[in-house]
Amino acid sequence: MTTPYIVFSKRSSAELRSCIVENYGLIRYEYPFINALCVEVPEENVYKLKRHRLVAMMAHDGAVKKMSDGNTLYAAHLPIAIPFSETGGRDVTIAIIDTGLSPHYDLLKPYCRLSAFKDIIHGEVSPYDDDGHGTHVAGIAAGNGYACGSRIRGTAPLSKIVAIKALDENGSGTTSDILAAMQWVSDNKTRYNIKVLNLSFGVEAGDDSEPDPLVVGTTALVMQGITVVAAAGNAGPKPRSISSPGINPQVITVGAYGLTGIPEFTSRGPVGPSIRKPDLLAPGVDIASLNAYNAKNYVLQSGTSMSCPYVSGLAACILSAYPNLKPIQVKRLLIKLAVPLRGISRDIQGAGCL
Q: What is the DSSP string of 76-140?
């Protein structure tokens, strides 16, 4: 029996590759951007591999899931307006790792703003979304309202999108597939001018007994100049329920609020004694966005999955106006824009609501 692991190398992943092939198991993915491999290892060889001189650390390949509530309400031409800056995210590309993307009028007309589509799961070339989550997320960040006279549009309606499908038709996936999508973003960031990465998914954060590959991956992308925005998770109201990679201090972690206040589902912090999360809250209850199954229609969904792209779009707008800002500077600006709620713990609201 074999078990998938993320194996981090002390040197280059290329040096470790030959050793894995000869002695231990099957290589599923290579991740040069974090110097790691995804390896299927026979159980009897796990301990031996962990002690190998080239292995820095190992982690299990965890299960990842989308951060929406799973309930979809259909809505046609709802008069829900989302504010956006004057730049509209022009000349900035937002990468979205999710369930894919279905062609929708609000992304294709009057001109196509989908720069690229990559399918990690099935290897398809043409864009599609067999769950609907990724399309809804993309619309919150970048929909221009073409199909409804601009009454429903995202926070960066002039930005471009690249969609990487790494979650399946149920909105589920694995850490190894997500890291493969992150590797694609790293390889193509210059080609497509990717400045923002949206991660509307998460995995339950583990203890400190083994490394967190999603934290390592997102940190590497931030170091490459990409502003990473992650959903806080939908495991509230219990404390210490922030999902990974939202636990990473380097990313912008977004919780949800609605017209009646902060919903119970939004995950709470803290992450640890020195890490306070979430960073801020954004609208995440009954959000109207693109319908993956009707290119002229819209649906309502709730969850921190919806709050996350709201902030990704705003980050794109900031970077459109100030293209030389570093991710930490974008994060600080967004935190300054947040309005704190009286009497609410920072472990629930972070810096406040956008």
A: SS--------TTTTTT-EEEEEESB----HHHHSSS--EEEEEETTT--SS--BSSSHHHHHHHH
